[in-house]
Design goal:
With about 190 residues, this protein is an all-alpha fold. The protein has one domain. The chain has 9 helices and no strands. Helix 3 packs antiparallel against helix 4 and helix 6 runs antiparallel to helix 7. The protein is globular.
Length: about 190
C-alpha cells in the first residue's frame, strides 16, 4: 500500500508545484517540496496548519491551497502507516472541502478532490468501500461533467482506475493514460 499511496502523493506534488500561486504560496511550495524530498513532514504539517489559521473568509484560492495541502498530508500519512494521524486530518480536511464546494468559484477540482477523500476513507477502513466507492465514483463523474480536462480530475480518475480491482473495472493502463494526460495538461500551463 505504501508504494501505491506514494504514487498518489507524487502526482499531488507534481500538480501542486505546477500550478501558479501567489508569492506567499511560493514560500509554502518550497517548504512542501523540501518536506517531501527529505521525508521530514513536520514542516509540511506546521505550514499547512498555519495556512489554515490565516485563511481569509471567502477566499477560494487560499481555501483550495489549504485543502490541497491537507490532501497531500493525508496521503503521506496513509502511505507511511500513520492511520491515526490520517483520520485526524481527514476529519478536518472534510470541513475545508465542504466549504470549498460551496463557493461560487468551485469547478471540477473540488469534486475530484472529494473523490480522493472518499478513497482515503476506504483506505482507512476497507469495509467502507460499499458506501464510499459509489460516492467516490459519483463525485468523479460530477468533476468530469464540469471539466474533464481539469488536471485534478485527470489525476483522480487515474487513481480510481489504478486502485479499483480489475474485476470491478480498474485498469492500470487506463490509469497511466490519465496520469500522462495530467502531466501534458500541466506542461501546457492549463489547470
Amino acid at each position: 500500500m505504501e508504494r501505491k499511496t506514494n504514487l498518489i502523493f507524487a502526482f499531488l506534488l507534481l500538480i501542486y508545484f505546477a500550478l501558479p500561486w501567489n508569492m506567499a504560496a511560493q514560500k509554502e511550495d518550497s517548504i512542501f517540496y523540501r518536506s517531501y524530498t527529505t521525508t521530514n513532514m513536520e514542516p509540511w504539517k506546521r505550514t499547512m496548519e498555519k495556512m489554515a489559521e490565516e485563511l481569509e473568509p471567502e477566499n477560494y484560492k487560499q481555501l483550495f491551497e489549504v485543502t490541497l495541502a491537507w490532501y497531500g498530508y493525508i496521503g503521506y500519512c496513509l502511505g507511511n502507516d500513520k492511520e491515526r494521524e490520517a483520520k485526524k486530518y481527514l476529519k478536518s480536511g472534510w470541513k475545508f472541502l465542504e466549504q470549498l464546494e460551496e463557493m461560487p468559484e468551485a469547478g471540477a477540482a473540488p469534486h475530484a478532490l472529494k473523490s480522493g477523500f472518499y478513497g482515503f476513507e476506504m483506505a482507512l477502513a476497507r469495509y467502507k468501500a460499499v458506501i464510499f466507492g459509489p460516492k467516490s465514483l459519483a463525485t468523479l463523474k460530477e468533476a468530469a461533467a464540469i471539466d474533464s480536462s481539469d488536471v485534478h480530475y485527470l489525476v483522480e480518475k487515474g487513481n480510481q482506475m489504478y486502485y479499483t480491482p480489475s474485476v470491478f473495472g480498474g485498469d492500470k493502463e487506463t490509469a497511466l493514460r490519465h496520469y500522462e494526460k495530467a502531466v501534458i495538461t500541466m506542461e501546457a500551463g492549463k489547470k
